[in-house]
Each structure stands twice: as structure tokens, then as C-alpha cells.
TrEMBL record:
<comment type="subunit">
    <text>Acetyl-CoA carboxylase is a heterohexamer composed of biotin carboxyl carrier protein (AccB), biotin carboxylase (AccC) and two subunits each of ACCase subunit alpha (AccA) and ACCase subunit beta (AccD).</text>
</comment>
<keyword id="KW-0276">Fatty acid metabolism</keyword>
<comment type="function">
    <text>Component of the acetyl coenzyme A carboxylase (ACC) complex. Biotin carboxylase (BC) catalyzes the carboxylation of biotin on its carrier protein (BCCP) and then the CO(2) group is transferred by the transcarboxylase to acetyl-CoA to form malonyl-CoA.</text>
</comment>
<keyword id="KW-0479">Metal-binding</keyword>
<feature type="domain" description="CoA carboxyltransferase N-terminal">
    <location>
        <begin position="27"/>
        <end position="283"/>
    </location>
</feature>
<dbReference type="InterPro" id="IPR029045">
    <property type="entry name" value="ClpP/crotonase-like_dom_sf"/>
</dbReference>
<keyword id="KW-0436">Ligase</keyword>
<dbReference type="InterPro" id="IPR011762">
    <property type="entry name" value="COA_CT_N"/>
</dbReference>
<comment type="pathway">
    <text>Lipid metabolism; malonyl-CoA biosynthesis; malonyl-CoA from acetyl-CoA: step 1/1.</text>
</comment>
<keyword id="KW-0275">Fatty acid biosynthesis</keyword>
<keyword id="KW-0547">Nucleotide-binding</keyword>
<dbReference type="Pfam" id="PF17848">
    <property type="entry name" value="Zn_ribbon_ACC"/>
</dbReference>
<comment type="similarity">
    <text>Belongs to the AccD/PCCB family.</text>
</comment>
<dbReference type="InterPro" id="IPR034733">
    <property type="entry name" value="AcCoA_carboxyl_beta"/>
</dbReference>
<keyword id="KW-0862">Zinc</keyword>
<keyword id="KW-0443">Lipid metabolism</keyword>
<dbReference type="GO" id="GO:0003989">
    <property type="term" value="F:acetyl-CoA carboxylase activity"/>
</dbReference>
Length: 283
């Protein structure tokens, strides 16, 4: 490279100043959609929705609780449950422990009892930061117990899904959770109790094919990816080009698979209205 080329390159990509290098880590966040740099503090005030392009960034389970539940009312359940390694999958135990340390969760879903606008509900919130929200035996067990607790207490059950699907490291044990959670939901329904499913980005695989899609009311966040198999797999199977918005929340809404697409800023208000309409004596 000539000196002239090197000089021109350095003009395009200037060396960061010492002041820029000293900016605390995490103070700024780049939107993955429009690439705009946003103050993390302002982004959190905006429910982790980009103020420039309205892209809904992924939330942790705890962030979701903070936005959704009345302050100080949420009590988590089954934090003691631990994932085993039934198939002896290499490094699986270590990866689960690392994710637990990183997220502060015992598994890829946080469950518990709390209040929304003064009304008691049972909730399950999946976290894609833990093994991409994949569903293993503990995830299925925690969701099932949260449903059973709702049935026992006679209160609504609400789930926020975010998952890459069934966890391959646990084989058929992870697939069994599809049936187990569905049976628990059937018993909830037989008691005449409400189940609201909120599908967030992404909700795919065995999760989308089981409890995520069978709510009495199915909601989703804008532009969330929702589907079973991948786009390329489907196109190769049906041998035709799929629409550009295929497997988005808006596509599913237009085809009758969702009841509404709800902006995150209006999610608590929407759920409050739904729970109030289905709770005796709440009106």
C-alpha cells in the first residue's frame, strides 16, 4: 500500500481519540436494524424500542417483568430447577452454567406470580439470551408448573415466547415438553381460565408448534419472526418463492393466525384490558 493510499484510508477511518476510548462500556447501543447509535438510558426509557426506526430490540426476562408487572408484586417460581445432561452431550453442562451466570436465570424461562394493574396473573417469560430461548426439559417443566399454579389459583396465565425451538442437546426429552405443556393448558381451559400468548422475536420450531400458538388470545410484537421451519427449507419443499414478509407477525395477522400485533409501549395497557374483561368482578 502506498503512503497516499494509507493517508486516505486513515482519513476515512480516523483513529479514535483518547476521550472516545474512555467512554464507559454499555453507555451507547447500536440499533441492529437502522444502525443508529442511541443512549442506552434513553433506549431503556423507550422500552428498548429504537426511536429512529421503531425496531423492537430483544429484552431480557427481567426487563420484561419491569415493563409489565406492577412494581414489587412479582415473585418468581422454581428457580431451584437445574438442567441435567441426559444424553452426555459434550460441553452442554458448561454452556448452560455459563448462560446461567450471564443472565442470572436458572433456565431460558422466568416464571412466577405477580400483578398487572392490580390483577393477579401467572406469567412465563422466555429469554433468548439463554441458549437462544431453546426449550429443554426444565423450560417445559417450569412453564407447566406456572400453568398449573394459574389453574390452582383460578387466575389468568400469560406467556411471552422467544425461542429457537426444542433443545437438540436433550433429544426427545425436549420434544416431550410440547405435549406436557399442551396438556396443562387443556386443564387450564377446562376451568374456564384465560391464556394469553405473546409471541416475540423470534418464536420458532417446537415452541411455535405447541404452547405459543394456542392461546385464547394470541398477540405479537411488530415484525417478530414467527414460524416452524426456516424459510429456505420451506421454499425447497413447496418449490416456490415465498412473500418477503413471510413468517412475520404482520403476515400471520393478515392470515388469521394472530389476534393483534401490539407495540411494546402499549403491551401492558392491552394486557390490562384483556385480563380485566376476563376476570370476574374486575370491571
Amino acid at each position: 500500500m502506498s503512503l497516499k493510499e494509507l493517508f486516505n484510508r486513515n482519513k476515512r477511518y480516523p483513529i479514535p481519540s483518547e476521550e472516545a476510548k474512555n467512554v464507559p462500556e454499555g453507555i451507547m447501543t447500536k440499533c441492529p436494524e437502522c444502525r443508529k447509535i442511541i443512549l442506552t438510558k434513553e433506549l431503556m426509557k423507550n422500552y428498548k424500542v429504537c426511536p429512529n426506526c421503531d425496531h423492537h430490540l430483544k429484552m431480557t426476562a427481567q426487563e420484561r417483568i419491569n415493563c409489565l408487572m406492577d412494581e414489587g408484586t412479582f415473585v418468581s417460581m422454581d428457580d431451584h430447577l437445574q438442567t441435567s445432561n441426559p444424553l452426555g452431550f459434550p460441553s452442554y453442562t458448561e454452556k448452560v452454567k455459563n448462560d446461567a451466570k450471564k443472565t442470572g436465570l436458572n433456565e431460558a424461562v422466568l416464571t412466577g406470580i405477580g400483578e398487572i394493574s392490580g390483577m393477579k396473573v401467572s406469567v412465563a417469560i422466555m429469554d433468548s439470551h439463554f441458549r437462544m430461548g431453546s426449550m429443554g426439559s426444565v423450560v417445559g417443566e417450569k412453564i407447566t408448573r406456572a400453568i398449573e399454579e394459574a389453574t390452582k389459583l383460578g387466575i389468568p396465565f400469560i406467556i411471552f415466547t422467544a425461542s429457537g425451538g426444542a433443545r437438540m442437546q436433550e433429544g426427545v426429552l425436549s420434544l416431550m415438553q410440547m405435549a406436557k405443556t399442551s396438556v396443562a393448558l387443556r386443564r387450564l381451559s377446562e376451568k374456564g381460565l384465560l391464556f394469553v400468548s405473546v409471541l416475540t422475536h423470534p418464536t420458532t420450531g417446537g415452541v411455535s408448534a405447541s404452547f405459543a400458538s394456542v392461546g385464547d388470545i394470541n398477540l405479537a410484537e411488530p415484525k417478530a419472526l414467527i414460524g416452524f421451519a426456516g424459510r429456505r427449507v420451506i421454499e425447497q419443499t413447496v418449490r416456490e418463492k415465498l412473500p418477503e414478509d413471510f413468517q412475520t407477525a404482520e403476515f400471520l395477522l393478515n392470515h388469521g393466525q394472530l389476534d393483534a400485533v401490539v407495540h411494546r409501549a402499549k403491551m401492558k395497557e392491552t394486557l390490562t384490558t384483556i385480563v380485566k374483561l376476563h376476570t370476574k368482578g374486575a370491571m
